[in-house]
Amino acid sequence: xxxxxxxxxxxxxxxxxxxxxxxxxxxxxxxxxxxxxxxxxxxxxxxxxxxxxxxxxxxxxxxxxxxxxxxxxxxxxxxxxxxxxxxxxxxxxxxxxxxxxxxxxxxxxxxxxxxxxxxxxxxxxxxxxxxxxxxxxxxxxxxxxxxxxxxxxxxxxxxxxxxxxxxxxxxxxxxxxxxxxxxxxx
Length: 186
Hints:
Number of strands: 0
Strand content: under 5%
Radius of gyration: 18 Å
Structural class: mainly alpha
Distance between the termini: 22 Å
Shape: elongated
Number of helices: 10
């Protein structure tokens, strides 16, 4: 793993555990056991660092989604497995994402990237002939994740997550373009 990626990953952990205020170049150098000034060398400003964190979240999310989509073809199952993976193996990323999205000190362009880092509204819209149904699917997924992240419910198994997604897709079924996920596009 290169240093930029290691720094972005460490920043995710710091933000998820201690919040944005705890994120400093010095704290990352210390966490990574890098010489003082290393993080500053790669990311001159905190804004540069936050942009890298947002890009890293997109990269991790896409890789996870593509990995799941290559083993499943049913849309509801792909979405449920992706949600389950996020809620059981990627909670640090989810917590960091919410912390950054909710902090007014984070630049709007970074928050825009974060808003699309776990769920691609564009990809969801491609599933349906009616784009608003793609928007609704993303909203449903965001709500299912928020329920767990904010403590309203505990992490669910794949079948429990598949149920609301399947119900939504059945209701939007007349607009669904197909029942498979295209992994050729990010």
